[in-house]
Amino acid sequence: MLRMGKNDHAAVQAVLRGDKEAYGALVVRHSPRLFRVAFRITGNEADADDVVQDALLRGYRKLEGFQAKADFGTWIYRIAVNCALDRIKQRKRDDVGRVAEGSDPEQDEVQAADSAAGPERLVLSGEMGALQAAALRSLTADERTAFVLRHLENRSIEEIAAALGIAPNPAKQSVFRAVQKLRTRLALLRVKI
Questions:
Q1: Residue 66 CB: number of other CB atoms within 10 A?
Q2: CATH code for the domain of 20
Q3: Which domain holds residue 133?
Q4: H or E element: which one contains 130?
Q5: What is the CATH number of the domain that holds 191?
Q6: Residues 89 and 135 in one domain
Q7: What's the whole-model pTM score?
Q8: Per-residue pLDDT tens for 154-182?
Q9: What is the secondary structure of 20-70 as a DSSP string?
């Protein structure tokens, strides 16, 4: 049986030879992972879907420039992280426009609860989710991405650095700052409740 990387390499080569259908195998294989990281960075399912589509389209368009010695999964993952960061920046620009028009961006967010849990658990879960979401929104896009990649995606500092396009030391500092800010923010939010 071929390793995943060899299957990716074969699919990339097939696409470059003109077999456009071969890209479908790459899409199927990598979409769930890309969606997971996009959702964790953007915090929004619709944005995550758009990020995955954008990343896969960008990947397809730039496939000729892909270095075959690199791993396709890592390459497309980095594209997805960059697309997610772009989406956050765009959303912030849009939110500023909506606030200027008098709309409240907080009202646009909906927290879905687990229907299998009891009412007390649902309330507590919703409150904790809201606290966590508010704390994550207080981070810069780079800090949030560094935190998500390190603590939710279990990525190495080197992978985080590559995804953010920075050196490992600043990447490590971004993770540290994010954790410190989240601790402080969550402590403040808990006191208010």
A1: 15
A2: 1.10.1740.10
A3: 114-193
A4: helix 119-137
A5: 1.10.10.10
A6: no
A7: 0.63
A8: 889 998 898 888 999 999 999 999 999 88
A9: TTHHHHHHHHHHHHHHHHHHHHH--HHHHHHHHHHHHHHHHHTGGG--TTS
